[in-house]
Amino acid sequence: MVKDIKEQIDKEIKSFWKSIIYKCILYRTYSTIITIIIAFAYTNKLGVSAGIGFTELIIKTFSYYCYEKYWRWRLDKTYKRKVSKWNQKN
Prior knowledge:
By secondary structure, the chain is an all-alpha fold. It has a domain at 22-83. Helix content is 96%, strand content 0%. The protein contains 2 helices and no strands. Helix 1 runs antiparallel to helix 2. The protein is elongated, with a radius of gyration of 20 Å.
């Protein structure tokens, strides 16, 4: 029981850092720069463009984290269902 809780906490931490490192720092930096450039082309104001870019960065990082949590929940649910069926057969 304690081991399961510890594994779940480790998964949560790993998912959080994965969303920060892979999505935020690497991919999102490039994406945010492109968003700022496009926003600047429309607004011609660097402050507003940067605000739009960083808002996009925060929203997309949070949505990716939620997606990761949902995906893991679906996989765990499917796995538990299959194990339960397998245990009933045996």
